[in-house]
Amino acid sequence: MRETMWIYVLILFLSETRSVESGTTESPSVNTTFPPINERRDAIFNNGRDVNLTCSDKMWNETFYVIWTIELINKDPCTIKFNSDGQNTDTCNDGKSLRNTSSAQPYLHIPKFSKNDVGIYTCEFAYRGGATNCKIYVNIIVTPVMKAWLEHKDNTTVAVCIAENGNPAANISWSHARNSSVEQLPGKNGRFTVVSRLELPEGMDPKNLSCIISHQNLTEILFPEFQKVKVSLWLYALIAGIIIAFLAGVLFFVVMKLRQHQQSDTSSSKSPPIEDVEEVEPYASYVQRVNSIYN
Questions:
Q1: C-alpha to C-alpha distance for 86 and 108, rounded to whole angstroms
Q2: Closest-CA residue to 6 (of 40, 35, 39, 38)
Q3: What is the three-class DSSP state of 253?
């Protein structure tokens, strides 16, 4: 509050000084609003377009100073300011600049707006007769990812429509709006996810159903269908692993059989041949037989 009073006194002093320098004796016009006017606004822009921000409708010749303090998401706060004595300061150094319209109204120019320019822009604008403090929350338009499908729940069919990670939040409606519900969820990086579910009455043909998603100047119509079963990557990997293991087992079995067959062939080829030897009678029976002949 004390700082605001000093600013107001400074405005009065500068106004009186300008009146004296111009040789006029009439007192300056002073805005009776005190403290200064405070404003808060939200602004959202498309990616890649040039953006102009204003915080007062006063003209340049009425301005004592303009100070823009910019707080971006991925950057330290910086300042762009102008004084009536011609002193300019720019600590942002990213292409932003103070400019005038054709009617000499000052504004902040942002070339080729992108996600890197998203943040809070605070303007202190002192002019002859008053001051304005304006805080503008600047964001970027992000088109959501849109999907729609049918699913079974208990004994009913439910249609699901989703607009994911968009900014601002999308609107969802149905061609048949019975028993529908809408849920808004927080998305990534301050974005919004909107989900709508519609319970289909028994006997209704889903082919006649459509989901309408509206976002900024975009309208998308989706026709939900039952999702095809998708085999996940890990299942593919598991099947491939089983096939490879089976083939490896078959190959190992074949190799072992071949080795056994080779070993048996080698052992049979190295064994000594068996000689055919006539049977020899014992000596005692031979003597007995000779004696019987002589007798």
A1: 17
A2: 35
A3: helix
Whether the CB-CB separation of 6 and 126 falls below 8 Å is answered with no
Task: Report the C-alpha gap between 95 and 106 in whole angstroms.
Answer: 17
φ/ψ of residue 106, rounded to 5: -75, 150
DSSP state of 226: B
In angstroms, how far apart are the furthest CA atoms of the chain?
A: 185
Terminal C-alpha separation, the chain: 161
**Residue 141 main-chain phi, psi, to 5 deg:** -80, 125
241-261 pLDDT per residue, tens: 899 988 888 888 788 877 777
Q: State pLDDT tens for residues 167-196.
A: 999 999 999 766 788 999 887 777 899 999
Q: Which two tokens stand for residue 256?
A: 């072992």
Round the CA-based radius of gyration of the chain to a whole number and report it: 46
Whole-angstrom Cα distance, residue 187 to residue 9? 47
> What Cα–Cα distance (Å) separates residue 93 from each residue in 39, 85, 118, 138, 263?
26, 22, 16, 19, 84
The tokens for 75 are 């950057």
118 — phi, psi (to 5°)? -70, 135
Residues 137 and 201: their CA atoms lie apart, in Å, by 44
DSSP character for 167?
Answer: B
